[in-house]
Design a protein that fits this description.
The protein is an alpha/beta fold and 452 residues long. The chain has a single domain (4-451), classed as Alpha-Beta Barrel (TIM Barrel), CATH 3.20.20. 40% of the residues lie in helices and 14% in strands. The protein has 16 helices and 13 strands. An 8-stranded parallel beta barrel has the order 1-2-3-4-5-7-10-11, surrounded by 6 helices. Strand 8 and strand 9 form a beta hairpin. Helix 4 (71-81) packs parallel to helix 6. The longest helix is centred in the middle third of the chain and has 25 residues, at 197-221. Bound molecules: 5-hydroxymethyl-3,4-dihydroxypiperidine. Residues 27, 30, 176, 232, 301, 361, 408, 415, 424 line the site of 5-hydroxymethyl-3,4-dihydroxypiperidine. 5-hydroxymethyl-3,4-dihydroxypiperidine binds next to loops.
Length: 452
């Protein structure tokens, strides 16, 4: 294993880092592996990835990065990196194999080892409750399309808070609900692979209500704990200043951003989007109040911007996405656009005024190669990081309540339908022997944290 064995330092990161949180993030299905070990049952992603043709190369998360097995190694990597916080998600079906019943002692033991191992190294655990891996047994009972999912999630959140709330003080309820709902239930790209617009709307609503219930669970049990949601926010710009393109951009903005932000911040669902989609918002009960339960922070996952033009390509949205010409893109084909992060933050402050903001994901995929000397010189990732962290400084200088930054990702991992072909990690994972090697970007980020 090529990972540095020394470097296990325990400096007081909060003191060194002026309270700005420097972190790295991962998600359970993308790194854990051990898909059938110790009582874990399948999630919808296990099912989906085993359907031929759903992922690049037929890749699955069966082994992923073997993090379940290599936990200590990964904890040591984090310690070496000098991060003050680690954002991870819990595999619901590892913790509660039948979805809403008894806990699995082996699952509890694993997450206890993780949380205790972080705290022993002076790293704050940031726990994401749901990063897309619904237990298959619950999907078979109606899944997120069923209103019952709200109760299942509340039970799951209560279980997490009871088990780990004495040590976990930072909670993220749901990661990127638009990916779950839009990509999983309308586009069909993600698990469970449905293509039904009304189903996707119902799912988005149940996710948001489930989020609100979970916020209440956390705050009732631990009033001092901080809780929020992580939204994937990809700002939209119009391809030109024509009225048609501006209107197309507004439609996409409504669907991708305002659909989630507006109800979370007490404005209900945006009426223009309801009209445009020609859908029925599920019956509401007191749901809008629950969704708008105050949170301590908004998690922002930022990667790129989108450019929209009027056009018939995207069915009900009546628009077409435009790839800007002559711009630098990552291995995902995503434009590198740090200014978009600044514009987004200004808008969030002006339109929604979150109590605090954390960038809970930001990073880039590149076709990394191991050099003859064993080094991975990922200069383009370093440049991406540097430019986005310069932007972070600008954002802070404008007085926006940005309190932390989590690099996506700690290590290369299973990139959903792109399988293992896309590498986002600060640490290179050799998928033959599962060794980890810090890339140049890990060295750069480490130094950046040290100097901050
Ligand atoms: O890998 C994903 C992550 O799971 C959610 N946000 C975007 C990342 C990169 O695609």
């Amino acid at each position: 294993m090529s990972f540095i064995k020394s470097g296990f330092c325990c400096r007081n990161t909060a003191e060194v880092n002026n309270d700005f949180v420097w972190g790295a993030a991962t998600a359970a299905y993308q790194i854990e592996g051990a898909a059938t070990a110790d009582g874990r049952t399948p999630s919808i992603w296990d099912t989906f990835t085993h359907i031929p043709g759903k992922t690049h190369n037929g890749d699955t998360g069966d082994d992923a990065c073997r993090h379940y097995e290599l936990l200590e190694t990964d904890l040591d990597s984090m310690s070496w990196l000098g991060i003050s916080a680690y954002r991870f998600s819990v595999s619901w079906s590892r913790l509660i194999p039948d979805g809403d019943g008894a806990v699995n002692p082996a699952g509890v033991a694993f997450y206890n080892r993780l949380i205790d191992g972080l705290l022993a190294r002076g790293i704050e655990p940031w726990l994401t409750m749901y990063h897309w891996d619904l237990p298959q047994v619950l999907h078979d009972r109606g899944g997120w399309q069923s209103r019952e999912s709200i109760d299942w999630f509340e039970h799951y959140a209560s279980t997490l808070v009871t088990l780990f709330g004495d040590r976990v003080k930072h909670w993220i309820t749901i990661n990127e609900p638009h990916c779950v709902a839009w990509f999983g239930y309308y586009r069909g790209w993600f698990a469970p692979g449905l293509t039904d617009i009304q189903a996707s709307i119902d799912v988005s609503h149940h996710l948001l209500v489930a989020h609100g219930r979970a916020v209440r669970v956390v705050k009732n049990a631990w009033p001092d704990a901080l809780v929020g949601i992580s939204l994937g926010l990809t700002p939209v710009e119009a391809a030109s200043d024509s009225a048609e393109d501006e209107a197309a951009a507004r439609r996409l903005d409504g669907y991708d951003l305002r659909w989630f932000l507006d109800p979370l911040y007490g404005r209900g669902y945006p009426a223009d989007v309801v009209r445009q989609l020609n859908i029925t918002v599920p019956s509401l009960h007191d749901d809008l109040d629950v969704i708008a339960t105050p949170t301590d922070f908004l998690g922002v996952n930022y990667y790129l911007r989108q450019i929209a033009a009027a056009g018939p390509v995207d069915g009900f949205l009546d628009l077409t996405g435009v790839d800007p010409e002559g711009v630098e893109v990552t291995d995902m084909g995503w434009e590198i656009y740090p200014d978009g992060l600044l514009h987004l933050m200004r808008r969030l402050r002006n339109d929604y005024a979150p109590a605090a903001i954390y960038i809970t994901e930001n990073g880039s995929a590149w076709p990394d190669v191991v050099g003859d000397n064993g080094e991975i010189v990922d200069s383009r990732r370093v440049d991406y990081l540097r430019r986005h962290l310069d932007t972070v400084e600008t954002i802070k200088s404008e007085g926006i309540a940005l309190k932390g930054y989590f690099a996506w990702s700690l290590l290369d991992n299973f990139e959903w339908n792109s399988g293992y072909a896309k590498r986002f990690g600060l640490f290179y994972v050799n998928y033959d022997d599962f060794s980890r090697t810090p890339k140049a970007s890990a060295h750069w980020y480490r130094e950046h944290i040290r100097k901050s």
